[in-house]
Design a protein that fits this description.
heterodimer, A: 77% helix, elongated, B: mainly alpha, Arc Repressor Mutant, subunit A, 69% helix
Chain lengths: 223, 197
């Protein structure tokens, strides 16, 4: 018989096992007294560990301990007062009287509590309101600052883009200008040359001896 | 004071890390102070020392905030810091006990009694059972476990961490965590016998 490993048993005992493994382990437990005994020991240890559920926090740190210590005498006094009212009337007051006494006791307790705790409550409420307001201001400032930073960043980005465009435009303009100047120069000198050639051609005299006018070179001498 | 929304521990820690935000740090302390104190108390057996260790753990969180990896779980990181502090504390105590032993009896080799461990008080758990409350006795039995079993038992049983997370906290394989848990429970079952209750 193959027994589940202790690791598998731990997964099962702490509910971390795969359902298939869990089912197989449960089935194994039915037929294996050895594992049954071992698992029972582990479970007993688990149960006994559960006996200790103390918070293990020093008394001075327990939140509310001071407030409860302050409230306890007053509450006890209020309860005694109420009990006194009731006990005093147990001799035979009517139900309506008892109800009235009870209402009075409740009013008295409420008044006592209000008197005892008003300064505290007002202080706490005022501190809480102050803290909330301060926190809101802080968040508002932070959001404003972030928004302003984002705007500055956007503006810097756009300015940088514009500068790059201007630089590019400048380069393009210079290139076009250079091209145009070159073209104009070549074109201008070509025209001038052709013009001067035509002019020279028109001035050429066909008077060289021994030449048949039909054989005269049409090529003018170019200076 | 509260953050404007229920941020996760990691988000709050990110604020601590990025801007040394004291408000965010206070929120982390508020959320985790008690669990860390409980862990330290169960590991050291001294609630007042646990308070100091817990404060030390949070001081370390703040001073080493840049070491926190933002993709990791904050709780795992914090548990690890606290467990390491507990181990350091127990080692210091052990050293102090050794020094005291050398000073007192010239190093005769006898084990010095340790205030926080019932197994070392000279009384066997069965003998001290009658003079202690049940919960207190269970606590002391847990304290008598070797540290590496105790850490697993406390983190799993009392703090409810899953085995995988404990493995991450302690930096050991998950299988080892489970076998330590099994051994820890076996040792406890040997110390805490139901017929004694």
């Amino acid at each position: 018989m193959t027994h589940p490993t202790p690791e598998e048993w731990m997964s099962c005992l702490y509910g971390e096992a795969d359902p298939r493994v869990q089912a197989a382990a449960a089935a194994h437990l039915e037929v294996c007294p050895e594992c049954r005994e071992q698992v029972a020991r582990w479970k007993s240890a688990q149960a006994l560990l559960g006996e200790d559920r103390a918070t293990l926090v020093p008394a001075s740190r327990r939140r509310g301990a001071t407030a409860w210590a302050q409230a306890r005498p007053l509450l006890a006094a209020s309860v005694l007062l109420a009990a006194g009212f009731l006990a005093g009337r147990l001799a035979g007051p009517s139900r309506a009287e008892m109800r009235e006494e009870l209402a009075q006791a409740r009013t008295q307790i409420e008044a006592d509590l209000r008197v005892a705790y008003r300064p505290n409550l007002e202080g706490i409420a005022s501190a809480a309101a102050g803290a909330v307001a301060a926190e809101n201001r802080r968040w508002q400032d932070e959001i404003t600052a972030q928004w302003a930073a984002a705007r500055l960043e956007d503006r810097a980005g756009v300015q940088s883009l514009l500068r790059r465009l201007e630089a590019r435009q400048e380069v393009d303009r210079a290139a076009v200008q250079a091209g145009l100047i070159g073209l104009a120069r070549y074109t201008g000198s070509g025209f001038q040359q052709a013009e001067s050639q035509f002019h020279q051609l028109s001035q050429t005299k066909w008077s060289q001896p021994g030449l048949n006018p039909d054989e005269r070179s049409l090529t003018p001498s170019i200076p | 004071m509260k953050l404007p929304f229920q941020a996760s521990d990691e988000q709050v820690m990110w604020r601590v890390q990025a801007a040394a935000d004291a408000v965010a740090f206070a929120e982390l302390v508020r959320r985790w102070e008690k669990p860390i104190q409980r862990l330290c108390a169960r590991m050291t057996g001294d609630v007042h020392r646990a308070e100091d260790l817990s404060q030390e753990a949070f001081t370390r969180v703040f001073s080493r905030r840049q070491d926190f990896v933002s993709t990791a779980r904050f709780s795992t990181w914090l548990w690890r810091i606290a467990v390491n502090l507990c181990h350091d504390e127990l080692r210091r105590r052990h050293r102090r006990a050794e020094v005291a032993l050398d000073t007192d009896d010239g190093g005769s080799g006898e084990t010095s009694p340790r205030r926080d461990e019932p197994a070392a008080t000279g009384q066997a758990p069965d003998e001290s059972l009658h003079s202690l409350e049940r919960a207190e006795w269970v606590r002391r039995a847990v304290l008598s476990l070797p540290e590496h079993y105790r850490a697993v038992v406390v983190l799993r049983h009392y703090e409810g961490l899953r085995f995988a997370e404990i493995a991450e906290v302690l930096g050991i394989p998950e299988g080892t965590v489970k076998s330590r848990m099994a051994e820890g429970l076996s040792q406890l079952a040997g110390r805490i016998r139901p017929e004694n209750f």
